[in-house]
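Q: Entry one of two.
A:
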Amino acid sequence: HRNKAKRLHQAGDIVAVEQILSYVRQHHPGRVIEVDLEEKGGRYLYEIEVVDSAGEVTEHYFDAKTGKPVKSEIKD
């Protein structure tokens, strides 16, 4: 996965994951526990899971091409 993400970033198809993580750390307090790059319907999404101080896990999805947030949801 890491090599694919690197190739896509170098080709200009996606933003660097560091950009997404910086945004997550500023806007969603907690600890990042998982980072994934998924392809859905020809579109790449970063999925970032964050656990907060209460132990609640939230999944945050970002458009990998633009870096813009798509949605957030609490993980059951």
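Q: Entry two of two.
A:
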Amino acid sequence: MTITYEDFKKVQIKIGTVVNVKKNERAKKPSLVLNVDFGSKIGIKQSSAQITHFYNSENLVGKQVIGVCNFPIKNIAGVNSEVLILGAMEKDGKVVLVQPSQKTENGLDIA
């Protein structure tokens, strides 16, 4: 399926910094709950993500990530997930996060 540039412009893809991480204890598949600071216009948003193969609170806090910020809230095992954190899916289902190559300002658009 092909989309137009106008379709793409509707998706709010932003840079944010992980400020807090905890396990989503109620999730059927191992998941982490991330609080991500997307800057002053968007603020801190919560996401439940199945990224436990490579990530934990020790190596995520302070790390910048990329997220889709204008999806509707989705309840995932009792967590209101407000953003979709982007990652590459390996063949075995493990997720490798998409990140900026250098530290940048929270809230910047991905173009």
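A: Comment on entry two: The radius of gyration is 14 Å. The first strand starts at residue 13 and ends at 23.
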